[in-house]
Amino acid sequence: MYFWPFDITTVHITYACLGSFVVFFTLFSLVIREKLYLGEAIWATVFGIAIGPYGTNIVDPRSWGGDDPMQVNDITMEVTRVVLALGLFAIGVELPKSYILRHWRSLTILLLVGMTWGWLICGVALIYVLVPGLQFYPSLVVSACLTPTDPILAAAVCGGKYAEKHVPLHLRRILAAESAANDGLAFPFLYISLYLVLESPGEAVRDWFLITWLYEVCVGIFLGCVFGGLFRFLMKICEKRDFIDRSSSVAQYVALAVMTMGFALLLGVDELLAAFFAGTAFSWDGAFNEATEDTSFSSVIEMLFDSACFIFIGAWMPFASFYDPNLTLSVWRLVVITILLLLVRRIPPILISYKIIPDIKNFKEALFSGHFGPMGVGAVFISSLAVSKLPTASGTISADDQQTFLAASIQPIVAFVVLWSILIHGLSIPFWTLSKRVNTLTSTWPRSPSLQPEWLNQIRVRPLPPLPLPEISSLAVLALHIDRYPHISNGEHPFSLTLSARGRPRSTSSRSGQRSSQKPSPAGT
Protein backbone atom coordinates (compact mmCIF):
# COMPACT_ATOMS: atom_id res chain seq x y z
CA MET A 1 0.00 0.00 0.00
CA TYR A 2 1.39 3.38 -1.02
CA PHE A 3 1.28 5.92 1.82
CA TRP A 4 1.36 9.64 1.06
CA PRO A 5 -0.32 11.71 3.82
CA PHE A 6 0.28 15.10 2.24
CA ASP A 7 -2.64 16.70 0.42
CA ILE A 8 -1.21 19.96 -0.89
CA THR A 9 -3.59 22.14 -2.87
CA THR A 10 -3.80 25.84 -3.57
CA VAL A 11 -6.69 26.27 -1.16
CA HIS A 12 -4.83 24.52 1.67
CA ILE A 13 -1.73 26.64 1.12
CA THR A 14 -3.89 29.76 1.18
CA TYR A 15 -5.44 28.70 4.49
CA ALA A 16 -2.01 28.13 6.01
CA CYS A 17 -0.63 31.47 4.82
CA LEU A 18 -3.64 33.47 5.95
CA GLY A 19 -3.73 31.81 9.37
CA SER A 20 0.02 32.23 9.86
CA PHE A 21 -0.13 35.93 9.13
CA VAL A 22 -3.02 36.54 11.53
CA VAL A 23 -1.36 34.49 14.28
CA PHE A 24 1.99 36.27 14.10
CA PHE A 25 0.45 39.71 13.60
CA THR A 26 -1.79 39.37 16.64
CA LEU A 27 1.17 38.26 18.77
CA PHE A 28 2.75 41.70 18.32
CA SER A 29 -0.39 43.69 17.52
CA LEU A 30 -0.12 45.96 20.56
CA VAL A 31 3.41 47.05 19.69
CA ILE A 32 2.63 47.39 15.98
CA ARG A 33 -0.55 49.41 16.44
CA GLU A 34 0.05 51.41 19.61
CA LYS A 35 3.81 51.98 19.37
CA LEU A 36 4.58 51.93 15.63
CA TYR A 37 1.13 53.22 14.58
CA LEU A 38 0.88 50.68 11.76
CA GLY A 39 -2.31 48.85 10.88
CA GLU A 40 -2.72 45.41 9.40
CA ALA A 41 -3.28 46.75 5.87
CA ILE A 42 0.32 47.60 5.05
CA TRP A 43 1.70 44.43 6.65
CA ALA A 44 -0.86 42.24 4.90
CA THR A 45 -0.11 43.84 1.53
CA VAL A 46 3.63 43.31 1.91
CA PHE A 47 3.01 39.74 3.06
CA GLY A 48 0.79 39.15 0.03
CA ILE A 49 3.49 40.43 -2.30
CA ALA A 50 6.04 38.17 -0.59
CA ILE A 51 3.97 35.01 -1.05
CA GLY A 52 2.62 36.06 -4.45
CA PRO A 53 3.83 35.15 -7.95
CA TYR A 54 6.45 37.94 -7.91
CA GLY A 55 7.78 36.79 -4.53
CA THR A 56 8.03 33.19 -3.40
CA ASN A 57 5.16 32.14 -5.73
CA ILE A 58 3.31 30.27 -2.98
CA VAL A 59 -0.09 31.83 -3.74
CA ASP A 60 -1.16 33.09 -7.16
CA PRO A 61 -4.73 34.45 -7.26
CA ARG A 62 -4.56 34.85 -11.03
CA SER A 63 -4.27 31.09 -11.41
CA TRP A 64 -7.51 30.42 -9.52
CA GLY A 65 -9.62 31.15 -12.58
CA GLY A 66 -7.66 28.91 -14.93
CA ASP A 67 -6.98 30.49 -18.30
CA ASP A 68 -10.02 32.77 -18.17
CA PRO A 69 -9.08 36.30 -16.99
CA MET A 70 -12.74 37.15 -16.47
CA GLN A 71 -13.04 34.49 -13.76
CA VAL A 72 -10.06 36.02 -11.98
CA ASN A 73 -11.73 39.41 -12.28
CA ASP A 74 -14.97 37.99 -10.83
CA ILE A 75 -13.08 36.49 -7.87
CA THR A 76 -11.37 39.82 -7.22
CA MET A 77 -14.66 41.67 -7.43
CA GLU A 78 -16.47 39.36 -5.00
CA VAL A 79 -13.64 39.32 -2.43
CA THR A 80 -13.44 43.09 -2.35
CA ARG A 81 -17.24 43.47 -2.41
CA VAL A 82 -17.74 41.41 0.76
CA VAL A 83 -15.01 43.26 2.64
CA LEU A 84 -16.37 46.64 1.56
CA ALA A 85 -19.93 45.76 2.55
CA LEU A 86 -18.80 44.71 6.03
CA GLY A 87 -16.63 47.81 6.40
CA LEU A 88 -19.34 50.23 5.28
CA PHE A 89 -21.93 48.60 7.52
CA ALA A 90 -19.49 48.81 10.45
CA ILE A 91 -18.90 52.53 9.88
CA GLY A 92 -22.64 53.16 9.69
CA VAL A 93 -23.22 51.28 12.95
CA GLU A 94 -20.41 53.03 14.83
CA LEU A 95 -21.53 56.56 13.95
CA PRO A 96 -23.45 58.40 16.70
CA LYS A 97 -27.22 58.36 16.59
CA SER A 98 -28.83 60.45 13.84
CA TYR A 99 -25.35 61.49 12.66
CA ILE A 100 -26.19 61.67 8.95
CA LEU A 101 -29.18 63.92 9.63
CA ARG A 102 -27.28 66.26 11.95
CA HIS A 103 -24.17 66.54 9.76
CA TRP A 104 -25.71 66.38 6.29
CA ARG A 105 -24.24 69.71 5.20
CA SER A 106 -20.61 68.79 5.85
CA LEU A 107 -21.07 65.37 4.30
CA THR A 108 -22.79 66.74 1.19
CA ILE A 109 -20.14 69.37 0.51
CA LEU A 110 -17.29 66.91 1.01
CA LEU A 111 -18.88 64.37 -1.32
CA LEU A 112 -19.96 66.70 -4.11
CA VAL A 113 -16.94 69.00 -4.17
CA GLY A 114 -14.28 66.40 -3.42
CA MET A 115 -15.51 63.62 -5.68
CA THR A 116 -16.41 65.85 -8.64
CA TRP A 117 -13.07 67.64 -8.49
CA GLY A 118 -11.11 64.41 -8.17
CA TRP A 119 -13.00 62.73 -10.99
CA LEU A 120 -12.58 65.57 -13.50
CA ILE A 121 -9.06 66.66 -12.58
CA CYS A 122 -7.66 63.13 -12.45
CA GLY A 123 -9.39 62.14 -15.67
CA VAL A 124 -8.59 65.22 -17.72
CA ALA A 125 -5.29 66.51 -16.35
CA LEU A 126 -3.60 63.22 -15.42
CA ILE A 127 -4.90 60.06 -17.09
CA TYR A 128 -5.78 61.65 -20.43
CA VAL A 129 -2.49 63.56 -20.64
CA LEU A 130 -0.06 60.94 -19.31
CA VAL A 131 -1.53 57.80 -20.92
CA PRO A 132 -1.46 58.53 -24.68
CA GLY A 133 -3.43 55.44 -25.65
CA LEU A 134 -6.56 56.42 -23.70
CA GLN A 135 -9.02 58.91 -25.10
CA PHE A 136 -11.09 61.34 -23.04
CA TYR A 137 -14.09 59.20 -22.06
CA PRO A 138 -12.01 56.09 -21.21
CA SER A 139 -9.79 58.32 -19.07
CA LEU A 140 -12.86 59.30 -17.06
CA VAL A 141 -13.55 55.60 -16.39
CA VAL A 142 -10.08 55.16 -14.89
CA SER A 143 -10.51 58.35 -12.89
CA ALA A 144 -13.86 57.13 -11.52
CA CYS A 145 -12.09 54.07 -10.09
CA LEU A 146 -9.65 56.32 -8.22
CA THR A 147 -12.24 58.81 -6.96
CA PRO A 148 -13.60 57.05 -3.83
CA THR A 149 -11.76 57.06 -0.52
CA ASP A 150 -11.10 53.63 0.88
CA PRO A 151 -13.00 53.08 4.16
CA ILE A 152 -10.74 50.22 5.27
CA LEU A 153 -7.57 52.33 5.15
CA ALA A 154 -9.40 55.39 6.47
CA ALA A 155 -10.41 53.37 9.53
CA ALA A 156 -6.73 53.26 10.50
CA VAL A 157 -6.73 57.06 10.62
CA CYS A 158 -10.10 57.45 12.33
CA GLY A 159 -9.32 54.83 14.98
CA GLY A 160 -6.32 53.81 17.02
CA LYS A 161 -4.23 55.38 19.73
CA TYR A 162 -2.70 58.11 17.59
CA ALA A 163 -6.07 59.28 16.27
CA GLU A 164 -7.57 59.38 19.75
CA LYS A 165 -4.73 61.63 20.94
CA HIS A 166 -4.12 63.91 17.97
CA VAL A 167 -7.20 63.87 15.69
CA PRO A 168 -10.32 65.64 16.99
CA LEU A 169 -13.39 63.48 17.43
CA HIS A 170 -15.56 65.51 15.07
CA LEU A 171 -12.95 65.20 12.32
CA ARG A 172 -12.62 61.45 12.77
CA ARG A 173 -16.35 60.97 12.49
CA ILE A 174 -16.83 63.09 9.38
CA LEU A 175 -13.89 61.39 7.63
CA ALA A 176 -15.29 57.97 8.46
CA ALA A 177 -18.76 58.88 7.20
CA GLU A 178 -17.36 60.44 4.03
CA SER A 179 -15.12 57.45 3.26
CA ALA A 180 -18.11 55.14 3.56
CA ALA A 181 -20.56 57.22 1.55
CA ASN A 182 -18.26 58.03 -1.36
CA ASP A 183 -17.59 54.35 -2.09
CA GLY A 184 -21.27 53.88 -2.82
CA LEU A 185 -21.48 57.19 -4.68
CA ALA A 186 -18.64 56.10 -6.96
CA PHE A 187 -21.26 54.20 -8.97
CA PRO A 188 -22.72 57.34 -10.65
CA PHE A 189 -19.24 58.54 -11.64
CA LEU A 190 -18.34 55.13 -13.00
CA TYR A 191 -21.53 54.53 -14.95
CA ILE A 192 -21.70 57.94 -16.64
CA SER A 193 -18.16 57.30 -17.87
CA LEU A 194 -19.00 53.77 -19.01
CA TYR A 195 -22.20 54.89 -20.72
CA LEU A 196 -20.24 57.55 -22.63
CA VAL A 197 -17.78 54.87 -23.79
CA LEU A 198 -20.41 52.28 -24.73
CA GLU A 199 -23.31 54.48 -25.92
CA SER A 200 -24.07 57.79 -27.54
CA PRO A 201 -24.05 60.89 -25.31
CA GLY A 202 -27.85 61.23 -25.36
CA GLU A 203 -28.45 57.61 -24.38
CA ALA A 204 -25.69 57.83 -21.79
CA VAL A 205 -27.28 60.78 -19.98
CA ARG A 206 -30.73 59.15 -20.12
CA ASP A 207 -29.54 55.82 -18.71
CA TRP A 208 -27.37 57.53 -16.13
CA PHE A 209 -30.28 59.52 -14.75
CA LEU A 210 -33.00 56.86 -14.93
CA ILE A 211 -31.04 53.69 -14.17
CA THR A 212 -28.11 54.82 -12.06
CA TRP A 213 -29.62 57.60 -9.97
CA LEU A 214 -33.32 56.85 -9.72
CA TYR A 215 -33.05 53.09 -9.44
CA GLU A 216 -29.61 51.94 -8.29
CA VAL A 217 -28.74 54.79 -5.92
CA CYS A 218 -32.16 55.81 -4.59
CA VAL A 219 -33.55 52.29 -4.27
CA GLY A 220 -30.28 51.12 -2.71
CA ILE A 221 -30.50 53.83 -0.04
CA PHE A 222 -34.17 53.04 0.56
CA LEU A 223 -33.48 49.30 0.84
CA GLY A 224 -30.70 49.86 3.37
CA CYS A 225 -32.84 52.18 5.49
CA VAL A 226 -35.76 49.73 5.46
CA PHE A 227 -33.62 46.74 6.43
CA GLY A 228 -31.76 48.63 9.15
CA GLY A 229 -34.86 50.21 10.65
CA LEU A 230 -36.92 47.01 10.47
CA PHE A 231 -34.35 44.84 12.20
CA ARG A 232 -33.68 47.51 14.82
CA PHE A 233 -37.38 47.36 15.69
CA LEU A 234 -37.40 43.55 15.71
CA MET A 235 -34.31 43.38 17.93
CA LYS A 236 -35.89 45.67 20.49
CA ILE A 237 -38.97 43.45 20.68
CA CYS A 238 -36.86 40.30 21.00
CA GLU A 239 -34.70 41.84 23.73
CA LYS A 240 -37.72 42.95 25.75
CA ARG A 241 -39.20 39.46 25.65
CA ASP A 242 -35.83 37.72 26.14
CA PHE A 243 -35.93 35.96 22.77
CA ILE A 244 -32.30 36.77 21.89
CA ASP A 245 -29.07 36.48 23.84
CA ARG A 246 -26.08 38.81 23.77
CA SER A 247 -23.89 36.76 21.45
CA SER A 248 -26.66 36.44 18.87
CA SER A 249 -27.32 40.17 18.93
CA VAL A 250 -23.65 40.81 18.16
CA ALA A 251 -23.84 38.33 15.28
CA GLN A 252 -26.37 40.66 13.66
CA TYR A 253 -23.37 42.89 12.96
CA VAL A 254 -22.17 40.57 10.20
CA ALA A 255 -25.39 38.81 9.24
CA LEU A 256 -27.36 41.96 8.49
CA ALA A 257 -24.53 43.37 6.35
CA VAL A 258 -24.32 40.20 4.25
CA MET A 259 -28.11 39.94 3.96
CA THR A 260 -28.44 43.55 2.82
CA MET A 261 -25.67 43.09 0.27
CA GLY A 262 -27.29 39.91 -1.06
CA PHE A 263 -30.77 41.41 -1.52
CA ALA A 264 -29.27 44.53 -3.09
CA LEU A 265 -27.43 42.39 -5.64
CA LEU A 266 -30.59 40.43 -6.38
CA LEU A 267 -32.44 43.67 -7.07
CA GLY A 268 -29.53 45.15 -9.04
CA VAL A 269 -29.11 48.24 -6.85
CA ASP A 270 -26.07 49.87 -5.24
CA GLU A 271 -25.08 47.31 -2.60
CA LEU A 272 -22.45 49.53 -0.98
CA LEU A 273 -24.85 52.37 -0.27
CA ALA A 274 -27.42 49.82 0.90
CA ALA A 275 -24.94 48.34 3.40
CA PHE A 276 -23.87 51.75 4.71
CA PHE A 277 -27.40 53.04 5.22
CA ALA A 278 -28.48 49.73 6.74
CA GLY A 279 -25.81 50.17 9.40
CA THR A 280 -26.79 53.81 9.92
CA ALA A 281 -30.49 52.97 10.31
CA PHE A 282 -29.71 49.95 12.48
CA SER A 283 -28.01 52.15 15.10
CA TRP A 284 -30.06 55.29 14.50
CA ASP A 285 -31.06 55.62 18.15
CA GLY A 286 -27.68 54.45 19.52
CA ALA A 287 -29.17 51.44 21.34
CA PHE A 288 -27.11 48.88 19.43
CA ASN A 289 -23.87 50.75 20.15
CA GLU A 290 -24.63 50.75 23.86
CA ALA A 291 -25.52 47.06 23.84
CA THR A 292 -22.31 46.01 22.04
CA GLU A 293 -19.93 48.57 23.53
CA ASP A 294 -17.99 46.03 25.60
CA THR A 295 -17.76 43.36 22.89
CA SER A 296 -14.83 42.94 20.50
CA PHE A 297 -16.44 40.46 18.13
CA SER A 298 -16.94 43.01 15.35
CA SER A 299 -13.33 44.22 15.48
CA VAL A 300 -12.09 40.62 15.30
CA ILE A 301 -14.23 39.90 12.25
CA GLU A 302 -13.10 43.12 10.56
CA MET A 303 -9.43 42.34 11.19
CA LEU A 304 -9.78 38.83 9.72
CA PHE A 305 -11.58 40.02 6.60
CA ASP A 306 -9.33 43.05 6.12
CA SER A 307 -6.16 40.99 6.50
CA ALA A 308 -7.39 38.39 4.02
CA CYS A 309 -8.37 41.07 1.51
CA PHE A 310 -5.07 42.95 1.62
CA ILE A 311 -3.09 39.71 1.40
CA PHE A 312 -5.15 38.93 -1.69
CA ILE A 313 -4.47 42.39 -3.15
CA GLY A 314 -0.74 42.05 -2.52
CA ALA A 315 -0.59 38.69 -4.27
CA TRP A 316 -2.91 39.96 -7.05
CA MET A 317 -0.71 42.95 -7.99
CA PRO A 318 0.06 42.85 -11.78
CA PHE A 319 3.68 44.00 -11.59
CA ALA A 320 4.42 42.79 -15.13
CA SER A 321 1.76 45.11 -16.57
CA PHE A 322 3.26 48.25 -15.05
CA TYR A 323 5.48 48.46 -18.13
CA ASP A 324 3.60 47.61 -21.30
CA PRO A 325 4.36 49.52 -24.53
CA ASN A 326 1.20 48.11 -26.14
CA LEU A 327 -0.86 49.87 -23.47
CA THR A 328 1.38 52.99 -23.55
CA LEU A 329 2.20 52.36 -19.90
CA SER A 330 5.59 52.82 -18.28
CA VAL A 331 6.81 53.08 -14.72
CA TRP A 332 7.72 56.76 -14.92
CA ARG A 333 4.25 57.64 -16.23
CA LEU A 334 2.61 55.74 -13.38
CA VAL A 335 4.92 57.37 -10.82
CA VAL A 336 4.03 60.85 -12.08
CA ILE A 337 0.32 59.98 -12.08
CA THR A 338 0.53 58.72 -8.50
CA ILE A 339 2.43 61.74 -7.17
CA LEU A 340 0.16 64.28 -8.84
CA LEU A 341 -2.91 62.29 -7.86
CA LEU A 342 -1.96 62.40 -4.18
CA LEU A 343 -1.33 66.15 -4.42
CA VAL A 344 -4.30 67.42 -6.43
CA ARG A 345 -7.06 64.83 -5.93
CA ARG A 346 -8.36 66.00 -2.52
CA ILE A 347 -6.15 68.67 -0.98
CA PRO A 348 -7.05 71.67 -3.24
CA PRO A 349 -10.86 71.31 -3.14
CA ILE A 350 -10.96 70.83 0.63
CA LEU A 351 -8.60 73.76 1.24
CA ILE A 352 -10.79 75.94 -0.96
CA SER A 353 -14.13 74.92 0.56
CA TYR A 354 -13.31 74.13 4.21
CA LYS A 355 -14.70 77.45 5.47
CA ILE A 356 -18.22 76.39 4.45
CA ILE A 357 -17.82 72.88 5.93
CA PRO A 358 -18.97 73.04 9.58
CA ASP A 359 -17.04 69.95 10.71
CA ILE A 360 -13.66 71.24 9.47
CA LYS A 361 -12.65 74.02 11.85
CA ASN A 362 -9.34 75.37 10.55
CA PHE A 363 -6.62 75.11 7.93
CA LYS A 364 -4.76 72.27 9.66
CA GLU A 365 -7.86 70.10 9.80
CA ALA A 366 -8.54 70.85 6.13
CA LEU A 367 -5.00 69.85 5.17
CA PHE A 368 -5.26 66.68 7.22
CA SER A 369 -8.62 65.80 5.63
CA GLY A 370 -7.22 66.41 2.17
CA HIS A 371 -4.17 64.23 2.70
CA PHE A 372 -5.87 61.24 4.29
CA GLY A 373 -7.96 60.12 1.36
CA PRO A 374 -6.36 56.72 0.66
CA MET A 375 -7.20 54.47 -2.27
CA GLY A 376 -7.38 50.74 -1.66
CA VAL A 377 -10.08 48.08 -1.62
CA GLY A 378 -12.72 50.41 -3.06
CA ALA A 379 -10.58 51.30 -6.07
CA VAL A 380 -9.84 47.62 -6.80
CA PHE A 381 -13.54 46.78 -6.56
CA ILE A 382 -14.67 49.62 -8.85
CA SER A 383 -12.00 48.72 -11.41
CA SER A 384 -13.09 45.07 -11.37
CA LEU A 385 -16.70 46.18 -11.80
CA ALA A 386 -15.69 48.35 -14.76
CA VAL A 387 -13.80 45.48 -16.41
CA SER A 388 -16.85 43.22 -16.03
CA LYS A 389 -18.90 45.73 -18.05
CA LEU A 390 -16.37 46.01 -20.89
CA PRO A 391 -15.56 43.58 -23.71
CA THR A 392 -12.18 41.86 -23.54
CA ALA A 393 -9.81 41.42 -26.45
CA SER A 394 -9.12 37.93 -27.75
CA GLY A 395 -6.02 38.87 -29.72
CA THR A 396 -3.70 41.83 -30.04
CA ILE A 397 -4.78 44.92 -28.14
CA SER A 398 -4.98 48.09 -30.19
CA ALA A 399 -5.71 51.67 -29.21
CA ASP A 400 -8.17 51.87 -32.11
CA ASP A 401 -10.61 49.76 -30.11
CA GLN A 402 -10.97 51.90 -27.00
CA GLN A 403 -13.28 49.50 -25.20
CA THR A 404 -10.88 46.54 -25.18
CA PHE A 405 -7.92 48.88 -24.70
CA LEU A 406 -9.58 50.32 -21.60
CA ALA A 407 -10.41 46.85 -20.25
CA ALA A 408 -6.74 45.87 -20.49
CA SER A 409 -5.20 49.07 -19.11
CA ILE A 410 -7.56 50.04 -16.29
CA GLN A 411 -6.35 47.58 -13.63
CA PRO A 412 -2.58 48.13 -14.06
CA ILE A 413 -3.06 51.87 -13.51
CA VAL A 414 -5.37 51.38 -10.53
CA ALA A 415 -3.15 48.68 -8.99
CA PHE A 416 -0.02 50.86 -9.13
CA VAL A 417 -1.79 53.82 -7.51
CA VAL A 418 -3.37 51.59 -4.85
CA LEU A 419 -0.02 50.01 -3.98
CA TRP A 420 1.66 53.34 -3.35
CA SER A 421 -1.38 54.78 -1.60
CA ILE A 422 -1.31 51.88 0.87
CA LEU A 423 2.39 52.47 1.54
CA ILE A 424 2.28 56.27 1.72
CA HIS A 425 -0.89 56.63 3.77
CA GLY A 426 0.02 53.64 5.93
CA LEU A 427 3.41 55.14 6.79
CA SER A 428 2.29 58.77 7.12
CA ILE A 429 1.52 58.64 10.83
CA PRO A 430 4.72 56.71 11.79
CA PHE A 431 6.90 59.14 9.81
CA TRP A 432 5.07 62.12 11.25
CA THR A 433 5.56 60.81 14.78
CA LEU A 434 9.22 60.03 14.12
CA SER A 435 9.88 63.49 12.68
CA LYS A 436 8.33 65.13 15.73
CA ARG A 437 10.56 63.08 18.02
CA VAL A 438 13.66 63.93 15.99
CA ASN A 439 12.79 67.64 16.11
CA THR A 440 12.26 67.41 19.86
CA LEU A 441 15.62 65.73 20.38
CA THR A 442 17.33 68.30 18.15
CA SER A 443 15.84 71.27 19.95
CA THR A 444 16.68 69.92 23.43
CA TRP A 445 20.24 68.70 22.72
CA PRO A 446 22.66 70.33 25.22
CA ARG A 447 25.11 72.90 23.88
CA SER A 448 28.20 74.17 25.66
CA PRO A 449 28.39 77.97 26.03
CA SER A 450 32.11 77.81 26.80
CA LEU A 451 35.10 77.15 24.59
CA GLN A 452 35.76 73.69 25.97
CA PRO A 453 35.13 70.62 23.81
CA GLU A 454 31.54 69.30 23.54
CA TRP A 455 32.47 65.91 24.97
CA LEU A 456 33.43 67.49 28.28
CA ASN A 457 29.74 68.24 28.91
CA GLN A 458 29.02 64.52 29.07
CA ILE A 459 31.62 63.85 31.84
CA ARG A 460 30.41 63.75 35.38
CA VAL A 461 32.75 65.67 37.68
CA ARG A 462 32.61 64.85 41.37
CA PRO A 463 32.51 68.07 43.40
CA LEU A 464 35.37 68.70 45.82
CA PRO A 465 34.60 69.06 49.53
CA PRO A 466 34.62 72.67 50.83
CA LEU A 467 37.83 73.92 52.38
CA PRO A 468 37.65 74.54 56.14
CA LEU A 469 37.81 78.19 57.15
CA PRO A 470 39.83 79.29 60.15
CA GLU A 471 37.92 79.94 63.33
CA ILE A 472 37.78 83.69 63.84
CA SER A 473 35.80 85.75 66.20
CA SER A 474 32.76 87.70 65.12
CA LEU A 475 34.31 90.91 66.47
CA ALA A 476 37.25 90.56 64.11
CA VAL A 477 34.93 90.03 61.16
CA LEU A 478 32.83 93.02 62.14
CA ALA A 479 35.92 95.18 62.50
CA LEU A 480 37.11 94.01 59.09
CA HIS A 481 33.74 94.95 57.60
CA ILE A 482 33.74 98.39 59.14
CA ASP A 483 37.28 99.08 57.92
CA ARG A 484 36.38 97.98 54.35
CA TYR A 485 32.92 99.62 54.22
CA PRO A 486 32.99 102.71 56.47
CA HIS A 487 29.30 103.55 55.80
CA ILE A 488 27.99 100.21 57.13
CA SER A 489 27.43 101.77 60.55
CA ASN A 490 24.78 104.05 59.01
CA GLY A 491 22.82 101.04 57.67
CA GLU A 492 23.31 102.07 54.02
CA HIS A 493 25.02 98.89 52.81
CA PRO A 494 22.47 96.23 51.92
CA PHE A 495 24.57 93.28 53.00
CA SER A 496 26.27 92.25 56.21
CA LEU A 497 28.50 89.38 57.16
CA THR A 498 27.62 87.11 60.04
CA LEU A 499 28.94 83.86 61.32
CA SER A 500 27.11 80.59 61.19
CA ALA A 501 26.91 78.16 64.05
CA ARG A 502 30.00 76.44 62.68
CA GLY A 503 32.02 79.61 62.67
CA ARG A 504 31.99 80.21 58.87
CA PRO A 505 31.17 83.63 57.43
CA ARG A 506 27.72 83.88 55.76
CA SER A 507 26.29 86.71 53.64
CA THR A 508 22.71 87.69 54.40
CA SER A 509 20.32 90.31 53.06
CA SER A 510 19.43 93.52 54.80
CA ARG A 511 16.13 92.06 56.02
CA SER A 512 17.83 89.15 57.68
CA GLY A 513 20.28 91.60 59.16
CA GLN A 514 17.41 93.52 60.68
CA ARG A 515 15.89 90.35 62.11
CA SER A 516 19.27 89.30 63.51
CA SER A 517 19.68 92.67 65.14
CA GLN A 518 16.38 92.23 66.94
CA LYS A 519 17.20 88.70 68.02
CA PRO A 520 20.97 88.11 68.13
CA SER A 521 22.17 84.73 66.99
CA PRO A 522 24.12 82.50 69.30
CA ALA A 523 27.18 82.73 67.08
CA GLY A 524 27.56 86.45 67.69
CA THR A 525 27.32 86.32 71.48
TrEMBL record:
Q: Which organism is it from?
A: Calocera viscosa (strain TUFC12733)
Q: Membrane topology type, per the record?
A: Multi-pass membrane protein
Transmembrane region(s): 12-32, 37-55, 75-95, 107-130, 136-159, 180-198, 210-235, 247-266, 331-354, 366-386, 406-427
Transport is among the record's keywords: yes
Q: Name one Pfam family in it.
A: Na_H_Exchanger
Protein name, as recorded: Cation/H+ exchanger transmembrane domain-containing protein
Set out the biological process GO terms recorded for this chain's protein: intracellular potassium ion homeostasis; proton export across plasma membrane; regulation of membrane potential; sodium ion export across plasma membrane
Biased composition regions of type Low complexity, renumbered to the chain? 500-525
Q: Which residues form a coiled coil?
A: none
